[in-house]
Amino acid sequence: MLIEFSVENFRSIKERVTLSMVSSSDKSLDNNLIRTDSLEKESLLRSALIYGANASGKSNVILAFKFLKGLVRNSHKNQKDIKIRVSPFKLDADYPSKPSKFEVIFIKNNTKYVYGVSVTTEKVIDEYLYHYPKGRRAILFVRENTTDYKFITDIKEQKFLSERTLENVLYLSSSTQLNYTKLSEAFDWFNGDLKVITPESEVNMIAFTINRFNKDNNLKEYMLKALTEADLGIDDFSASFEKVSTDEGTKASTDEGSMDISKILGALEKMSLADNRGSVLISDRKGNLRKIDVRTIHTSLKGTSNELKVPFKFEEESDGTKKIFSLIGPWIDALSNGRILIVDELDTKLHHRLNLFLIKLFHDPTQNTKNAQLIFTTHNTNLLDLDLFRRDQVWFTEKNPNTGSTDLYSLLEFKPRKDQNIQKGYIAGRYGAIPFISDERIFVEPKDKLKWADMDEGKKEEEKPKEFS
């Protein structure tokens, strides 16, 4: 479970901003809360949503999660002198050379952890991991000035591991890969519990969905039930992978599911897809291309003697159906395993009722029995409803017009009444985080093109505006 996430000097985020999943004293919507012995008196939120104008930085909050997760998972692969692909704030001349900082507080197996790291493109500057095994903070490791480490347990072993950790590699990553098990719980939280979905992830999520139901027959039943509830008209589906035969030179290199588009296009040029137009291609971790073949089944004249089951190719489905299909696998996986699901632009291509359907699965204690959490960005103002979300679940991003930096803040700061129409207030600009649209007209007839030909010749001079004199 996620407690809190902070980031500083990353993309449009200049000063430290913090997203907290700790609930306020608000007594409303009790089902939206998680109570855990690990936090004693505090409770956590099952979901949070982030609003903001385009280019306000809300997606950068999501990308900060994604960057940190990828760094923890993959930095042990870095060779000496490989750059860390971090993007510091660029609109201040001093900040590109400063470290980008991240801190996350979370719970894994009923133990609270605090992990923080600061990095430049060259190296890891600071890194630390604490845990609270009996409610009191204890050091697992502290790293300062890149190479100065502090340990209080397994000192000799950890010193040995730290000496083998390169400057551009996280100690959490390298020590776990070298089988130091006392840090594995924290690593596993990043690797398995934290899931980040961006608009570019849709193809990978489709592949994830297919992989999941091919491995678990029961999952397909759950997925079909969810698709039926979503009222997409799908009564059954089948899906499989087919390896694409290509030359070695057309293999696509991957990094956490990313795809080398130029190489994929090169492979496509060598393939005959006449019978498979619209097929979805993905690249596996070894760089091999695979084609996803999805068929959905729709029933015509249901319940009659003339009932007809009709298969559709996946590309024949609507964009919204493809989106919900890509999400349903990760959604059920998160709910079944108590994961943290972070989604950028959840509402894209989805009807409001489908948004509600997905969100309410997280808020329903009978569906969300493992305390999964959902964080997402959206422009759908219909979700600004205090019968659906508590005030502490609603967040906003706004860009400072003078510095270009992103601020992240909670609806709680405005102390709206529980019966207040927050949708109306947001649209009216009461909470900020909306685009400023000038009243100035874009398309106007230039003054120097005003026609004077029809005016009386004698009156032309006196009737011209002064600027034309």
**The first-level CATH class name of the largest domain:** Alpha Beta
The overall average pLDDT, rounded, is 84
Structural class: alpha+beta
User: How far is it from the N-terminal to the C-terminal residue, by CA?
Assistant: 72 Å
Strand content: 15-25%
N-to-C series of helices and strands: EEEEEHEEEEEHHHEHHEHEEEHEHEEEHH
Which oligomerization state do the chains in this entry correspond to?
Answer: single chain
Number of strands: 19
Structural domain count: 2
> What is the 3D shape?
globular
Order of strands in the sheet with the most strands? 2-1-6-7-8-9-10
Helix % is 25-40%
Could you characterize the architecture of this molecule?
There is one protein chain. The protein has helices spanning 58-74, 155-163, 171-177, 184-193, 202-215, 217-229, 261-269, 319-337, 352-363, 422-427, 460-463; strands at residues 2-8, 17-20, 33-35, 43-45, 47-52, 100-108, 111-119, 124-132, 138-144, 148-150, 194-197, 236-243, 280-283, 289-300, 308-313, 340-343, 373-377, 394-399, 406-410. The protein is α+β, with helices and mostly antiparallel strands. It has two domains: 2-197 and 344-427, Rossmann fold (3-Layer(aba) Sandwich); 202-323, no CATH class. A hairpin with a 4-residue loop joins strand 7 (111-119) and strand 8 (124-132). Mean pLDDT is 84; it is low at 248-278, 449-453 and 455-469.
